[in-house]
Amino acid sequence: MFNSKLAADFPEHELLQSLQVKLDAESTHRINSFVVDNCFVSQEEESFQNMDQHTQIQLMYKRRNLLGQYCKLIIYGVLPVIDASLVLRHYTKFYNDFGDILKHLLQKCKELDKVSAAKAAILALITSYEELRALSASQYVDPNSEEFGSLKDLARRFGLSFGPDNVKTGTQLL
């Protein structure tokens, strides 16, 4: 299975065209939903707390494996880089569980296309903010709340991952 870029790089090889993965919007949406619903589950849930330690470790291994495979789909171009925003928005909340995987995903996305990686990071921040605003009792989000602090930490981590030089990273983020 190949992504569309590899098939486009070798148009003279018609057999590569037949191996090209072409996902429709419905399939992409189902993959995205499956990963988000099965990887980013809070460990404070009662069903998780009732499991023995061995089962919890196995479940964490499966969740990490699923997220890693999803990230490979993005890195290898089967899914668009912008879909990384769906998992990057959970970077701070699940940092202990998946921080290494998500950091590697962001680095690889930057290597592929810095502008698309920046768009994915910004979309993750916007989506997280909109979700916070929807959960808020008023129209505005309390800047002193713990949730907003988590959002600021996410923005800080994204900013640091693009580097401290604003002149170099400015074009990516605009």
TrEMBL record:
Highest rank taxon of the organism: Eukaryota
InterPro entries in the cross-refs: Cohesin_Scc3/SA
Biological process annotations from GO: sister chromatid cohesion
Sample GO molecular function, one term: chromatin binding
Signal sequence segment: none
Gene Ontology CC entries for this record: chromatin; cohesin complex; nucleus
Family: Belongs to the SCC3 family.
PANTHER family named among the record's database cross-references: LD34181P-RELATED, STROMAL ANTIGEN
Protein name (record): Uncharacterized protein
